[in-house]
Amino acid sequence: MDTKRYELNVQLAQMLKGGVIMDVTNVEQAKIAEDAGAVAVMALERVPADIRAQGGVARMSDPTMIAEIKRAVSVPVMAKARIGHFVEAQVLEAMNIDYIDESEVLTPADEECHIDKTKFAIPFVCGARNLGEALRRIAEGAAMIRTKGEAGTGNVVEAVRHMRTMNREIRQLLSMPLEEVTGYAKVNGIPYEQALKVRELGRLPVVNFAAGGIATPADAALMMQLGCDGVFVGSGIFKSADPARRARAIVKATAYFRDPLKILEASMDLGEAMPGLEISAIPENQLLAGRGW
Amino acid sequence: MPFPKISYWPAGVGNDLSGVAIMIGVLDLQGDVVEHLDHLERLGVAARRVKDPSHLHNLTGLIIPGGESTCLARLLRIFGVDAAILEAYERGVKIWGTCAGAILLATQIVGEKPYLGLIDMEVERNSFGSQLDSFVATASIPRVSSEPVPLTFIRAPKIRSVGPGVEILLQMNDYIAAAETAGILATVFHPELTNNLAFHRYFSRKCGLAPGKSQPLSDPTWTPTSWTRQIRISTG
């Protein structure tokens, strides 16, 4: 991928700032999401809560379904490829979708290598739990980052942990003398050049969204106040009692994330949120955030 | 990052700060808001984010940024910002829409109802295809800049046609990329994503601000990550 193409890919993510990207599994849901003001949709066969419940191997979605959704909406369409599954990514690129999510929500295809994203013209978004993970993905060619959170739980605690960790590590990098950066980068698995870039900019060099467990307007505004540039909502919308209403409310709370009165207004009369899962109640080997490295 | 800071005020007003500052607003509901704020800052133009109808008070110009037009349109309606923008336009506030912003300003949109309808033109949303069809180009736009202007198109719309009274600023092969009336400027590309300040200077002049001739057309200190200056991680 040439530099200009990469810039354009980062810039598409810049256009999504302040917006909500919603998981959708069919054309009807995609239209509900678009009408509610989603800035993009993530086309997938099963939302993370169902993947979690049903188990088995989760793969790239049926291209027929992704193509139908692409035809039905004008907002950007994203789809997930398995970690390291560069051929799923090739297929998604051939489909001319707008963004690929190399996602831990699907079962990893490679336990050593993530996709070499520099080989693609299409942009990638990748999940991260900390600064090192985010910067390793960017070094591999990711044009956008999101927290991993813990998808399909309706529990925002892991997304908060990941965002706070990234912020803390950025602040540490900013405040240390240059001679300490080498050791810090080594210990935290941060590519050195990327560490210098973060020191120069005071944040990640690409857009960073929140993802994994966001279920309410207040969750979305919480992640925005913590410094995220926008939010992904996976199971949180279409596993709730009134998806259209909740989708609109989360869009509103994300746009007005610093305004408690407007978040309050967005939070009224939404019906039941998706059922939540306590993270400690999930067996270790079923936690998704630990996938990838 | 150092860059020249020069303040421009309307001709005749001088640098009197005791009165109401004259400034340009950037609609801050969703999209590439900080990119525009950064460009205005480089020009030394006072700017303000616009999230509520009250934020339109005393503006001479408003920029509707890029983003997703369906999302922006929905958020404009919820708190009556759309009505306030129409009112501001009636008062003489100039409005510039980039990409999604241009869609919101058009009187006709292929396949859907128009939103603000302030400039007589027909646009087709996302007219080039997917992200793989996003591209950069360069064009000569004599009225805006004496030098060629770099253009960035991201999932861009096309202006298909314009009505009487609308001037075409940039005609590409089979579509129009920039058009204007006395009160409205519409560009389907993103000057805020380049080092070029010509369009922001042009719009500032349209708003009655008087940038000096010495101001360079492009800012060599601009980089693709310059937007991050506006949203660093808080250390407070």
Q: How would you describe this structure to a colleague?
A:
The complex is a heterodimer of chains A (293) and B (236). Chain A has 293 residues and is an alpha/beta fold. Helices cover 45% and strands 12% of the residues of chain A. An eight-stranded parallel β-sheet of chain A has the order 7-6-5-4-3-2-1-8. The two termini of chain A are 23 Å apart. Chain B has a single domain (20-234), classed as 3-Layer(aba) Sandwich (Rossmann fold), CATH 3.40.50. In chain B, the strands form three sheets. A seven-stranded mixed β-sheet of chain B has the order 2-1-3-4-12-11-10. In chain B, strands 5-6-9 form a three-stranded mixed β-sheet. A two-stranded antiparallel sheet of chain B has the order 7-8. The longest helix of chain B is centred in the first third of the chain and has 11 residues, at 33-43. The relative contact order of chain B is 0.18. Residues 1-20 of chain B have low confidence and may be disordered.
Oligomeric state, counting identical vs distinct chains: heterodimer
Beta-strand fraction estimate of chain A: 5-15%
Annotation field: number of helices of chain B: 5
Rounded to the nearest angstrom, the distance between the terminal CA atoms of chain A is 23 Å
Protein topology:
The complex is a heterodimer of chains A (293) and B (236).
Chain A: H1 3-15, E1 20-24, H2 27-36, E2 40-43, H3 48-54, H4 63-72, E3 77-82, H5 86-94, E4 99-103, E5 124-128, H6 131-139, E6 144-147, H7 157-175, H8 178-187, H9 192-201, E7 207-209, H10 217-225, E8 231-233, H11 235-238, H12 243-255, H13 260-267
Parallel strand pairs in A: 1-2, 1-8, 2-3, 3-4, 4-5, 5-6, 6-7
Chain B: E1 23-27, H1 33-43, E2 47-50, E3 59-64, H2 69-78, H3 81-91, E4 94-98, H4 100-105, E5 106-109, E6 119-124, E7 135-139, E8 149-153, E9 158-162, E10 167-171, E11 176-180, E12 184-187, H5 198-206
Parallel strand pairs in B: 1-2, 1-3, 3-4, 4-12, 5-6
Antiparallel strand pairs in B: 6-9, 7-8, 10-11, 11-12
